Amino acid sequence: MNQVGLLYVGAVLLLNGLMLLGRVPARSAAALNLFVGALQCLTPTVLIIQAGGDQDAILGASGLYLFGFTYLYVGVANLANLEPAGIGWFSLFVAGAAVVYSGLSFWHDHDPVFGVIWLAWALLWALFFAVLGLGAERLTRFTGWLTVFFSQPTCTVPAFLALTGGYRPSAGLAWLAAALLAALTGVAALLARRAPEPRSVPAATAAAA
């Protein structure tokens, strides 16, 4: 996982979680989705070109496209006001792929921490499938809160640790990460049950609705 790209994935996940919670308009979130999506497509392409046929390097870069295509898709859909079902069904494919990358992290890369993180991402993409592909609106707030909560510990924090040379994967750290993510999932479930806070709606938005 390229750590520079991962840093900005944390930003776009945070924004998209807030979008699902109704805090950020979809069109306003589109630009960052396009920027990060483009970065997550350009970066693995460069890495694959420079790999010189090294299959491990190519495999490591290949997962970045899952993020790149997702965010480009979201950005374009938000700007063009497309139906979200396509993103949802694409997310089902990505969720399955994320489970495979999790297994590779555990047994091929010997990095149990990212094995746990890939599973967390698989859960998020599975929820995107349920909300956007199957229309399970009752899960929207839970998905929004979980996306907000997962954005930093699965992306920003490990990215900064890796960029500063402080990332040391171990079984103990993997269990700690799993416990933290499980706790955040519980908090997201509790918050999702609360009624959304009433907010004033700008006149332009109300007219558009």
Automatic annotation (TrEMBL):
<feature type="transmembrane region" description="Helical">
    <location>
        <begin position="31"/>
        <end position="51"/>
    </location>
</feature>
<feature type="transmembrane region" description="Helical">
    <location>
        <begin position="87"/>
        <end position="107"/>
    </location>
</feature>
<dbReference type="Pfam" id="PF02293">
    <property type="entry name" value="AmiS_UreI"/>
</dbReference>
<comment type="similarity">
    <text>Belongs to the AmiS/UreI family.</text>
</comment>
<feature type="transmembrane region" description="Helical">
    <location>
        <begin position="173"/>
        <end position="192"/>
    </location>
</feature>
<feature type="transmembrane region" description="Helical">
    <location>
        <begin position="146"/>
        <end position="167"/>
    </location>
</feature>
<protein>
    <submittedName>
        <fullName>Transporter</fullName>
    </submittedName>
</protein>
<dbReference type="InterPro" id="IPR003211">
    <property type="entry name" value="AmiSUreI_transpt"/>
</dbReference>
<feature type="transmembrane region" description="Helical">
    <location>
        <begin position="57"/>
        <end position="80"/>
    </location>
</feature>
<keyword id="KW-0472">Membrane</keyword>
<dbReference type="InterPro" id="IPR038523">
    <property type="entry name" value="AmiSUreI_transpt_sf"/>
</dbReference>
<dbReference type="GO" id="GO:0005886">
    <property type="term" value="C:plasma membrane"/>
</dbReference>
<keyword id="KW-0813">Transport</keyword>
<keyword id="KW-1003">Cell membrane</keyword>
<keyword id="KW-0812">Transmembrane</keyword>
<feature type="transmembrane region" description="Helical">
    <location>
        <begin position="113"/>
        <end position="134"/>
    </location>
</feature>
<keyword id="KW-1133">Transmembrane helix</keyword>
<feature type="transmembrane region" description="Helical">
    <location>
        <begin position="6"/>
        <end position="24"/>
    </location>
</feature>
